[in-house]
Amino acid sequence: MPERMIADDEILLLRIPPTPPWLVLPEHITSANYKLGKQEKGLSVYRERIVSPGDVLNKPGVPPGCLLVWATAGKVRSLKNGKGEPLFLDVIAVDDENDPGHAEIRGRFSRSVAKSLSLLFRRV
Prior knowledge:
alpha+beta; 6-stranded antiparallel β-sheet; two-stranded antiparallel ribbon
């Protein structure tokens, strides 16, 4: 399997910043975590096969108090909107020597995508 390919059973980790709008106390993870910024091509995640949850939380510059959520690549790819229509999301590896295990969820992001992803990912 080429390195850019991510198997359906691979666990993806998403780091949740410890402040609003991403996290609202008491530990309510918001859909803001599943939206892209204007310059972003995809939603950043990490491949647990390559980096541990501790590695993701202890990377330089990561604020203390972050949470982690997870989902499998296959579940991301199979997501559907509220009408049962496929969302056509994919997960691809985009790591480099400075950020091993990094990947992105790519597709056409919308409120429906953010909502579906927020319902899929679970706390580590």
